[in-house]
Write a structure and sequence with these properties.
alpha/beta, Rossmann fold, eleven-stranded mixed beta sheet, two-stranded antiparallel sheet, 11 helices
Length: 430
């Protein structure tokens, strides 16, 4: 498996960094999935997975999205030659892997997309899973399937679709937010997920090349941690702005993929770039807020249980903003939340998900319960709390999609008036 020589192997301290950043990023994990009370609830047809004859380890599955549209996806290799890589300055350019998810036509012989690419899955099993107290070889990470068809044509009746960007938690692969991403796509959104190269544990590029994260500083004091998170945040904000520009190029008929791989039929004309939102989990949520402040192209943003970093802590935002929280942080113990909230002047809502932990806003909340009956995972409850994962998933699906439906589709909802009426696990904080 080819690897990038400029990205040394990470240490377990990376997870300790994320833990130590208590109000922010702990254990890099991404969001769950969402739906809306005003959208059809008939589940999309689940693609038939092709068995992996070489699979080893316990099989794991992801819950199907609830929207009525099947979905497609395509990976794009993007290269920004206008800047040196902010995390490895010796690199004269910044390269990224992104995935685009969208409502797709039914039928056709298009392969089902894996949760992780083959090389990334092998690296995750060897390096990342053990840091989550899951021993290497215990789980068939390579065999986890999504519900999207690779390269399937965009659904013709879908019309112009709003676009949403997703950013994961610090060090977290974009795949960790798949359940939420798939839900939004099944509900009529084009969703673009971004891997932050040299920060995330592993990024798989075309040809099986794996780029790993850079090593952490030896001494992880609170000041060092905050500086590192700010550095990662600045890199991600620039990444997201670059990705938006590439999406605009795609919408105007240009293929931004470095290898010029064929694009799914109908994708260039499917996106409505006048309606763009962004959300993220942990550090990714702070990035969404900063980009909403800095970039006029973003109309609404959401943060899933992340602290805020950088200038947006003081400036807040003047656009619609949603904050969803777990039991880990509160407005009382997180100064960045209080400062951001006081400075924000747009529509804003803060909701608390009871008995949830930081990892509840990631695919781990549906993966770990499939593993714990068969193996000991000491970190499970610490990561995903004690909330029922199906209830957590349903609440997040309803809330996140309703938020973007209101602010990108102008579709009214009563969910935010009394969310606990439909989801007792959710309470209004602010």
């Amino acid at each position: 498996m080819p690897t990038d020589p400029t990205a040394p192997r990470s240490r377990p301290a990376r997870r300790e960094l994320l833990r130590a950043a208590a109000a922010t990023a702990v254990l890099a994990t991404a969001g769950t999935a969402c739906s809306t009370t005003n959208s059809p609830t008939r589940p999309a047809a689940k693609p038939t997975a092709t068995p992996n004859p070489s699979a080893t380890g316990r099989p794991v599955s992801l819950p199907a999205p609830t929207g009525h549209r099947p979905i497609g996806t395509v990976n794009l290799h993007l290269v920004d030659r206008t800047r040196h890589d902010p995390l490895v300055p010796s690199k004269p350019f910044r390269e990224l892997m992104v995935s685009v998810w969208y409502p797709a036509e039914r039928g056709g012989k298009f392969p089902v997309a894996p949760w992780l690419g083959s090389a990334a899955a092998a690296d995750w099993d060897k390096r990342s899973a053990p840091l989550l107290t899951v021993r290497s070889g215990a789980v068939d990470w390579r065999g986890i399937q999504t519900h999207a068809r690779i390269g399937a044509p965009v659904a013709r009746p879908a019309g112009k679709l709003p676009v949403v960007l997703f950013s994961s938690g610090d060090g977290g692969d974009r795949a960790l937010g798949t359940t939420l991403v798939e839900e939004l796509a099944s509900q009529g959104y084009v969703v673009v997920t971004i891997d932050p190269t040299y920060e995330v544990d592993q990024v798989e590029f075309p040809g099986g090349r794996v780029v790993r994260n850079t090593p952490l500083p030896e001494k992880l004091t609170p000041k060092v941690i905050e500086k590192l998170l700010d550095k990662h945040s600045r890199a991600r904000v620039a990444d997201a702005g670059f990705v938006l520009t590439q999406i605009d190029a795609l919408a105007h008929g240009r293929n931004p993929d470095a290898e010029k791989k064929p694009l799914p039929a109908g994708l260039p004309t499917a996106m409505d770039l006048s309606r763009i939102g962004m959300y993220g989990q942990s550090l990714g949520g702070s990035v969404a807020a900063q980009l909403a402040h800095d970039d006029a192209r973003i109309s609404a943003a959401a943060n899933l249980d992340g602290g805020f970093h950088g200038p947006v802590v003081r400036t807040g935002v003047a656009k619609p903003f949603l904050l969803m929280t777990s039991d880990v942080n509160t407005f009382e113990n997180n100064a960045s939340w209080k400062s951001f909230w006081a400075a924000s002047t747009g529509w804003k809502h803060a909701l608390h998900l009871r008995k949830a932990k930081h990892g509840s806003y990631s695919d781990l909340q549906v993966i770990f319960p499939q593993l714990t009956p068969h193996m000991k995972i000491p970190a499970a409850s610490e990561l995903i709390g004690t909330i029922d994962p199906h209830r957590s998933l349903a609440a997040q699906r309803a809330t996140i999609t309703a938020f973007f439906d209101v602010h990108l589709k102008n579709r009214p909802t009563t969910l935010f008036d009394n969310p606990s009426g439909q989801y007792p696990e959710v309470e209004i904080l602010r």
